[in-house]
Amino acid sequence: MSSNQKLTLVTICDNTFALLLATLLKSIEVNLLEPTQFDLYLVDDAIRSSTKNKLLEAINPAVFCVHWVTIDEALPPDIALPMDRSTFPRNVFVRLFIPYFIPQHLTKVVYLDVDMIAHQDITSLWSIDLGNNLLGAIIDRAERVSSPWSGYGNYQALGLEADTKIFNSGLLLINPILWRQQQITRRVVRCIEQNAKYAVFPDQYGLNVVLANQWLELDRRWNCFAQSEEVNPYLIHFTGTKPIYTSYQFNKAYQEEFYHYLRMTPWHHYRPVAGWRRLLLKQTHKMAKWCYRLVYRVTALKGFFDGGPTDKRYQQRQSTSSVYGQEEQKYA
Known about the structure:
Blueprint: E1 7-14, H1 18-30, E2 38-45, H2 49-58, E3 64-70, H3 71-74, H4 98-101, E4 109-112, E5 116-118, E6 135-144, E7 165-174, H5 176-181, H6 184-194, H7 202-210, E8 216-217, E9 224-225, E10 235-237, H8 252-262, H9 276-306, H10 312-316, H11 318-330
Parallel strand pairs: 1-2, 1-4, 2-3, 6-8, 9-10
Antiparallel strand pairs: 4-7, 5-10, 6-7
Helix pairs in contact: 1-2, 1-8, 6-7
């Protein structure tokens, strides 16, 4: 990969986890071995203006060229998000639409969850050859669809073998052109809707079912879970309880490293807060998704009787919707 070529990175963040994002970006910057520039497509899920200002203080413009994308701009207005039963926020589904809101000529993009930190220079991730695969990822902690812990209870009905591997959707190396050609977004959304009872980790479930045995398995160190004891990870992923809570009980060395980078940001005085806040946040996410679906249905009904939606946000989202619709029809 050319040294002067910008690397495309996508992540999604809300106001609560902005300090996690600041820490992730700082860790990436600090661990670079040579000057590198990233095109960062940052999906903003209602980040407050004061929080955004703190983020901009933390982000080095010489390293990250930030392209702000609101969650409304990232999600096409003509498709309803799945109504799963999880406590994950609706923004987890945004990763499904990445190929539609980034520049259409790009052939490779990396998605990272915000609850990660870089332990080493991660630029070699963009040099991995996907071959004929449209996705590269790391095997999940559950490892197989038949796992009693977070496996897929209906894997047999889906026609999957018991040893079918599951990947974690926290890090995705994507070929967006192949993604659009194979209509992955629409297929995944449909899969989650039809199997909501089994979609404990909704976006991840849908991706794994649709792309079963069709993804490139990457080195586990690219997505090293906080429950691991790996001493030389490339990226650390704080799945489960985040290091910002007093209830965090996983690898303490990883937590210390997280705070090492956090102290380099405007959140340098932050101290862990009580775990009950995490539980409250999860229930808030669940309620918000129900409200979203209700609003979607009411808006659709109103648009039907009014002759079409006129809401400004709807019109702003037409560019993403247009690309999404054109590509889906082209390869139907």
